[in-house]
């Protein structure tokens, strides 16, 4: 691809701005993997969750929580880690309550369609949550 003189000038200006402000980050296109656990599929490209080929409708926060927990399967994520990852900011109060309420909603939705997933999200008292793949 060949750039015009105007494009080259614009790119030079952007480069100068980035040099003056090293705290600015370039946006990268990252292709995240589809996560598959038995009959649970988290399609990160479409931001959809399926269980037994049936779509499970989740809120944005519920999706983000499930995705983060599944991404770090087997590891305990603290309330603070989950809050910062899902809400994108430092907690300004009781992050444990906010995260727990959303996990409760997530578990309830899976319970409504009679799934075993609620037991896959394990609470680690006073620490956070852990996702454990349940083999049927």
Automatic annotation (TrEMBL):
<keyword id="KW-0902">Two-component regulatory system</keyword>
<dbReference type="GO" id="GO:0005829">
    <property type="term" value="C:cytosol"/>
</dbReference>
<dbReference type="GO" id="GO:0000156">
    <property type="term" value="F:phosphorelay response regulator activity"/>
</dbReference>
<keyword id="KW-0804">Transcription</keyword>
<feature type="DNA-binding region" description="OmpR/PhoB-type">
    <location>
        <begin position="32"/>
        <end position="133"/>
    </location>
</feature>
<dbReference type="InterPro" id="IPR036388">
    <property type="entry name" value="WH-like_DNA-bd_sf"/>
</dbReference>
<dbReference type="GO" id="GO:0006355">
    <property type="term" value="P:regulation of DNA-templated transcription"/>
</dbReference>
<dbReference type="InterPro" id="IPR039420">
    <property type="entry name" value="WalR-like"/>
</dbReference>
<keyword id="KW-0805">Transcription regulation</keyword>
<dbReference type="GO" id="GO:0032993">
    <property type="term" value="C:protein-DNA complex"/>
</dbReference>
<keyword id="KW-0238">DNA-binding</keyword>
<dbReference type="Pfam" id="PF00486">
    <property type="entry name" value="Trans_reg_C"/>
</dbReference>
<protein>
    <submittedName>
        <fullName>Winged helix-turn-helix transcriptional regulator</fullName>
    </submittedName>
</protein>
<dbReference type="GO" id="GO:0000976">
    <property type="term" value="F:transcription cis-regulatory region binding"/>
</dbReference>
<feature type="domain" description="OmpR/PhoB-type">
    <location>
        <begin position="32"/>
        <end position="133"/>
    </location>
</feature>
<dbReference type="InterPro" id="IPR016032">
    <property type="entry name" value="Sig_transdc_resp-reg_C-effctor"/>
</dbReference>
<keyword id="KW-0597">Phosphoprotein</keyword>
<dbReference type="InterPro" id="IPR001867">
    <property type="entry name" value="OmpR/PhoB-type_DNA-bd"/>
</dbReference>
